[in-house]
Design a protein that fits this description.
The protein is α/β, with parallel strands linked by helices and 663 residues long. Among the domains are: 56 residues, no CATH class; 83 residues, Sandwich (Immunoglobulin-like); 171 residues, no CATH class. A hairpin with a 2-residue loop joins strand 7 and strand 8. Helix 13 packs across helix 14. It is globular and about 80 Å long. The mean pLDDT is 95.
Length: 663
């Protein structure tokens, strides 16, 4: 292997991949060189290449242990690397925080799990058995003879945290779309709190949320929860004014609530959220809350705020603002209300409660990126290779993290990110979970769009998910739609991570829908998600009409797609009619077809089954049309009815689902 090819491998620059149609695609050397450049490496500098190859390949064998040592259950072995001539040296392993002091009088005879030859010397990797230690991260020292090295031992459970082995039913929502009982133009934590009671009354087990990440207060038109300002902070627009203690006896707030613009907002009933207006008004309301806190808060509340700021200091310090304490206050209130909603889920007897959603990346001009710029690539963005839904591939415009730099400070960035998104919830869905193994990098090569796969430290990132899920008692769902390497599916399954199935895409080789018995048991089963039209819109072809209305497709293409849709509807009818006695046809109304489909899928063995509130609301407009930005008002469409109205209308239907799932 030549030096450059070796560095491609050591830096995780992909060589080839299998396309969705089975075609094997090989990346050119020019493309791979450009990916290396984006990683901060000059592919034409032979000295730099030689130095990096030494550091990434040779030097690791000259260290007793790496900076992070994975000790995985059930083996519980610590791997050390030594010159084989040191086999008879006395070895010490000390974990001071746990009071662990181990002595190995000799290493001779221990299992050899790896070897490396350098200048005629054989270096061997040995497996030392450790006692059971608590799940988590533990600083340790390892000494072999006179050689002493520090490492951080990660005690990794065999699987992520698991909930009761039962069929769970839940509701999938985009929080901002809920009709706001306070009539402030956007769904908030107050609406979520009320929804927990409705779900609890229908024996539901969880509520799957959209990402609650911080967006851009100064640019409210940037509404996508999947292109956030920071994934470790919450969006203050979800704060319910009336749930704040500082709304009580607040004269300034009461006066503002009587103003003309507030009255106009409360009387409006728009299909799409006007983020500019909503954000302007809510932040004025937030100011009155903060002013009231500053003037009247008792010692206990001030101390609680101080404690919050201390506990979240690292993340809060990433905020960029002229009034940081005001922004800290909003984060405090958002955390309090999210925790209130999860506590309500627990009180309602829900098995899981809230399930958070973690976006695959952050915006390139946000506080997360600015605070961690050194970890990101130079000129590469996250995307996806060509697939049946985007033949040209996709560039999501999110800066790509550099694999080699993720390990800085014991992977502190990723650990903190996962922990932040597992707090105050019962589960975490990870968008595009393949990112812990590989990501498609989009970049320009000689002025032309280009891309390739880049591989990440899979074992370490998976270990973090396992550890943090137990620390936070949070189940984990990996959104694994698209081109997924077999080793990723196997690793996720063996780690107890739920996969995510969209029924629309669960097809056999002949294009027919798979049978109910073939749906995966350990998965989150949904008919669709935020990137797919709601069922009524899909059945009635409304999504095609909307695309034509917004000039996303022309009349000829719309006609062609409508013909394909009829064929898809016929396949769906064949699936439904094979699983029930009542016969449906193409003239059946969308609600009847939807309810029949749901009742069929409720019989599946899938542990997690989610209904979209959009479908219960009989929505026609999608919440998002992938591939559009300014053409269609993505991430703004509100529900037609209140949650109470939706649940009242669907009460018997929801009861039937519950009966099937428990049967």
């Amino acid at each position: 292997m030549d030096a450059l090819s070796q560095l491609f491998y050591l830096h995780g620059i992909g060589y080839e991949f299998t396309k969705y149609n089975g075609e094997q695609v090989f990346f050119s050397e020019e493309t791979r060189k450009r990916a290396l450049q984006c990683s901060g490496v000059n592919p034409d500098d032979n000295n730099q290449i030689a130095h990096l190859n030494y550091e990434l390949d040779v030097a690791v064998w000259l260290q007793l242990v790496p900076s992070v040592s994975l000790v995985e259950s059930p083996e519980n072995t610590l791997k050390i690397r030594i010159d084989e001539r040191q086999s008879h040296a006395v070895t010490y392993v000390k974990i001071e925080s746990l009071g662990v002091n181990l002595t190995f009088q000799t290493l001779h005879g221990l299992p050899i799990v790896g070897e490396y030859y350098l200048d005629g010397v054989r270096y061997i990797e040995l497996a030392l058995s450790l006692p059971n230690i608590p799940v988590g991260y533990h600083d340790a020292t390892v000494q072999v003879g006179e050689q002493l090295t520090q490492t951080q031992i990660w005690s990794v459970p065999e699987q992520v945290y698991q909930v009761a082995n039962k069929k769970c039913t839940g509701l999938s929502i985009q929080l901002y779309t809920l009709k706001n009982k306070a009539q402030l133009g956007i769904g908030d934590f107050g609406d979520l709190l009320a929804l927990t009671h409705l779900c609890g009354a229908q024996s539901m087990d969880y509520i799957l949320l959209n990402p609650l990440h911080l967006l851009f207060a100064d640019m409210p038109q940037r509404a996508s929860p999947y292109s956030p300002n920071s994934r470790a902070l919450l969006n203050p627009l979800y704060i319910a004014i009336d749930l704040c203690d500082d709304a009580k006896n607040n004269l300034e707030l009461n006066t503002l609530m009587q103003s003309d613009d507030l009255t106009a907002l409360m009387q409006s009933n728009e299909k799409f959220i006007n983020y500019e207006n909503v954000s302007c008004i809510k932040y004025r309301l937030f100011k009155t809350l903060y002013n009231h806190f500053e003037k009247t808060a008792c010692h206990e509340r001030r101390q609680a705020f101080t404690d919050f700021c201390n506990a979240y200091s690292t993340t809060l310090k990433t905020l960029e603002s002229d009034n940081l304490m005001f922004d800290y206050y909003l984060q405090w209130q958002a955390h309090l209300q999210l925790a209130l909603c999860q506590n309500s889920c627990v009180a309602q007897g829900m098995t899981i409660g809230l399930i958070n959603d973690l976006a695959v990346g952050c915006a390139g001009d946000g506080v997360e990126f600015n605070a961690q710029q050194s970890l990101f690539s130079q000129g590469a963005h996250v995307g996806a290779p060509p697939d049946p839904w985007a033949e040209a591939g996709q560039n999501w415009g999110l800066p790509a993290l550099t694999p080699q730099k993720l390990g800085n400070n014991h992977y502190q960035f990723y650990r903190s990110l996962i922990r932040a998104n597992m707090q105050d919830v019962g589960g975490l869905r990870i968008d595009h979970v393949m990112a812990i193994r590989r990501l498609w990098w989009c970049f320009e090569t000689n002025g032309k769009q280009d891309g390739c796969y880049v591989y990440y430290p899979f074992e370490h990132l998976l270990a973090i998910l396992k550890i943090e899920s137990h620390i936070n008692q949070s189940l984990v769902i990996g959104e694994d739609l698209g081109v997924v390497p077999p080793e990723v599916r196997h690793a996720l399954a063996s780690s107890g991570i739920f996969s995510n199935s969209l029924f629309y895409f669960e097809k056999q080789y002949d294009g027919e829908f798979i049978s109910i018995n073939d749906l995966s048991p350990h998965c989150l089963l949904m008919i669709a998600n935020h990137d797919v039209p709601p069922f009524k819109g899909w059945w009635q072809h409304d999504d095609l009409d909307i695309k034509q209305q917004y000039n996303l497709i022309d009349e000829q293409l719309c006609t062609s797609l409508a013909k394909q849709r009829v064929e898809e509807r016929q396949k769906l009818l064949r699936f439904i009619n094979a699983n029930q006695t009542q016969e449906l046809d193409l003239q059946s109304n969308a609600t009847d077809v939807y309810q029949s489909l749901v009742l069929c899928l409720a019989k599946s063995q899938s542990r997690l089954f989610a209904l979209q509130i959009d479908d219960l609301d009989e929505q026609q407009y999608p919440v998002n049309i992938p591939g559009t930005d300014t053409e269609y008002p993505n991430w703004r469409r509100a529900l037609n009815h209140t949650c109470e109205e939706i649940f009242n209308k669907n009460a018997s239907f929801l009861a039937a689902i519950d009966s099937i799932r428990k049967g």
